[in-house]
Write a structure and sequence with these properties.
The complex is a heterodimer.
Chain A lengths: L1 E4 L7 H23 L4 H9 L6 H26 L7 H18 L5 H30 L3 H21 L32 H18 L1 H11 L1 H6 L4 H28 L10 H11 L4 H24 L6 H19 L2 E4 L25
Antiparallel strand pairs in A: 1-2
Helix pairs in contact in A: 1-2, 1-13, 2-12, 3-7, 3-10, 3-11, 3-12, 4-5, 4-6, 4-10, 4-11, 5-6, 5-10, 7-8, 7-10, 7-12, 11-12, 12-13
Chain B lengths: L8 E10 L2 E11 L4 E5 L6 H8 L7 E6 L2 E3 L4 H6 L2 E4 L11 H9 L7 H15 L14 H13 L5 E5 L7 H16 L3 E5 L3 H7 L2 E6 L2 E7 L5 H9 L5 H12 L22 E8 L7 E8 L4 E5 L6 H9 L6 E6 L2 E2 L5 H6 L2 E4 L13 H6 L7 E2 L2 E2 L1 H14 L15 H14 L4 E5 L7 H16 L3 E5 L3 H7 L2 E6 L2 E7 L5 H8 L2 H9 L1
Parallel strand pairs in B: 3-8, 3-9, 6-7, 7-8, 13-20, 13-21, 16-19, 19-20
Antiparallel strand pairs in B: 1-2, 1-4, 4-5, 9-10, 11-12, 11-14, 14-15, 17-18, 21-22
Helix pairs in contact in B: 3-4, 7-8, 8-17, 14-15
Classes of the chains: A mainly alpha, B alpha/beta.
Chain lengths: 370, 526
Amino acid sequence: MRFVLRSREPRWLGPAAVGVAVLLTLALTAGPIRLAGAAPVAAFERYLVTPLSTPNGVAEVLLSATPLLFTGLAVAIAFRVGYYNIGAEGQFLAGAMATTLVALSLPDLPAPVALPLGLLGGAVGGLLWAFLPALLRRRAGIDEVVTTLLLNPVAVLLLQGLLNGPWRNPETGFPDSASFGEGYEMPVLFGSRVHAGLLLGLLLVAVATVVMAATPLGVRLRAAGQSPTAAGFSGIRVGALQWRSALVSGAVAGLGGSSQVLGVQHQLTGSLAVGYGYTGVVVATLGGLSALGVLAVALLLGDVQVGAQSASIALQLPSQMGGVLTSVLLLTVVAALSVRRYRLTRLTRLRPAAPEPVPRTPVAARPGGD
Amino acid sequence: MTTPGTPLVELRGITKRFGSLVANDDIDLSVAEGEVLALLGENGAGKSTLTRILYGLSRADAGEIRIGGRPVAVDSPADALAAGIGMVTQEFSLVGTMTVTENLMLAGSSLGRVDRRAARARVVAAAERLGVPVDPDAVVERLSVGERQRVEILKALIGECRLLVLDEPTAVLVPADVDLLFASIRRLTAEGLAVVFISHKLHEVVDLADRIGILRRGRLVADLPAEGLDPVAIAALMVGGSTTAAGADDEALATAVGLDTPAATPDRAPVDTTGPAALEITGLTLAGDPRPRVDDVTLSVRAGEVVGVAGVSGNGQTELVAVLCGTTAASSGTVRVGGTEITGLDPAARLRAGLGRLTEDRRGSVVLGMSVEHNLAIEDLDRFRTGPFLSRRRVRAHAERLIERFDIRASPADPIRSLSGGNMQKVLLARAIERDPTVLVASQPTRGLDVGACEYVYAQLRALRDAGSGVLLVSEDLDELLGIADRIVVLSGGRVVGELAAADATREALGVLMTGGAEARAERAA
């Protein structure tokens, strides 16, 4: 038996592969859940269904999904053109820090000025954090996977340095910044904790979807990502597109950080560095690098995150089990999507080693190629 | 050991098909102990396929390999090595950061204890057999190409090798290394080793070979002693002179696909010699190591003219086309299209200047993951814009129009990767011709296509020429060049070594120029 690359694949194969991956994930995580002393079915219900059963739960899911929407979209934008930005984490934090800089420098601005200015600061911060790796890639061909990744801990250390130094809270002495002025409070929706950052994220998803599907730029971006050589041959400036996408990607991640401090924390704290950027890579990959896919996966992961808290309270499951679930899901989906490109065939052997001289006989042609 | 007279290795009735293409057609060939067999033929004649089968890299559809009179199954290189067949391919497979000894130990791949001292001694012994000094402790990446090739040969010899296969061993070598290689081969054959080698350089073949096998379109058309043959006679055999049966075949084929015979004067408007040339290449050079890949090429194509570029594969045609298309930057020289200089421009600006391209790398010219309609529109997406949006309707209409006009067997939304080679070529032709180019650079436009598709491509190229565009046709198929070109220039070693009007060109004359026979004759005269 051996794997052979499929020449054409039926339409149902992609969704079927994802379905198989989900079933595999449930099967694989049932073991650890059992070991942790809970019934798998009850746990899956807690993870996936319980959060969506109350209005408050739904609001929490939306709140959890909001930062992932930004970082997932940021990663997808870059990956789509073949620029592997693993630095959404750093860019997210840089955006939050830049917004904090604006808010602490100009504390008394009214909301109509303060919010756009704060968000703009966030976008610029993320863009600047993405600038150097993009420049190194463009001018010197240095691999962006390494440079963007290595800038992440730099951003975390900068954040901690600022919070323990110049931005230490003057009132409490804790390593948190002072609370922002009232003008910097993002409006909330439906009287819940969900804030306008979600709307901004949805707007970006809509814009990205339209650009990719219905503009010349979208076709160029797809061509540059899928086959850079052919795109370049057709007159598309692949390097320039990657450069611009890298900066836009940084700006979108920065907006995510900005929306998080303006909408949820109203101050800069160390708890911001919990891996939204890294999770963004998962969201983008699972979402197939499409904006709508990012939206769906961000909501799913938000659901599991909220569910994990509920499961840890109700079933005494460690809250890390939610992370186990999403990680296994990532592995199975990526594996299933790769394996579906192959089909299994029986290996046919051309001719046995003939021990004795035999008269020349043509051997029947084998079906298919090598 | 075999008794004298019995061939060491025999190929019997080897046949290999790739789809409708017959790469090897019922080939019988043998090589005796101590004999050097040279395999010759144009590109695509089936030489590489045959040696790959011999070394177990491909499997024949029919036929058998006999060693010392007994049939053996050679299904993998491991089988070949076990049977005493070693091969040095054109791409070397050495680990650059390891020493010569370490590389040879990898090839031995025996499990168990690693005996470095013994391995080193074996390298020294093998190098002695070769008659060339090889430093067993040298790191491979610091070695010259010639030295690396010696290491590859050592690797092949280190087992119980009785037949050594060399695929174009001299293509990458400088003359001094070629002499060393030939000395080594002579030394090895004196010990009884049999050698099969592929070459395009006829004077080398005459120098070294005991016997010559010539392949043409997958068939063995000659198998004769090298004694008494000179390069010109071999060239005539290779390209199928009109006296041979193969030549007659070709003329029949040429008629079948609707080619003009070389002598026929096409009935069309005279070439425009007044305005600026459609394509003007001056002193174009692409540096390379050790020699330039494209060397001071100057040529022009007038409007309404087809200029053919002939040459054996690997003599700068691919690089010339890459430089013209803008995917590789020239080292020096200029290129003008219809009076506009395009030397330093990017592909988009070249397209605007009126350059059309049809390269040999079809699958590299389309975005395989996209639909036919997007691939047809991708060179000028802005033309299909309504406001900021891409008009799906106009992209679709454009594709439908071209599908109709160029008889492409596909619908606009089909993924282009699902198209056959011929249909993909039609898409590329449509994309290039639809822009009404000042000059079309077409490289190997019919390679791998069936007869019907070839005929179609020729018809389109002629129609383009008759409409007043220039065409630069780069091809290894002499029938094709003789059939549609008005003039033919010959590239050898990246240089233009000759130019013939189509009316005066013959296969023999072109073959001699292409294979460096002219050089050999000049050398002999000197």
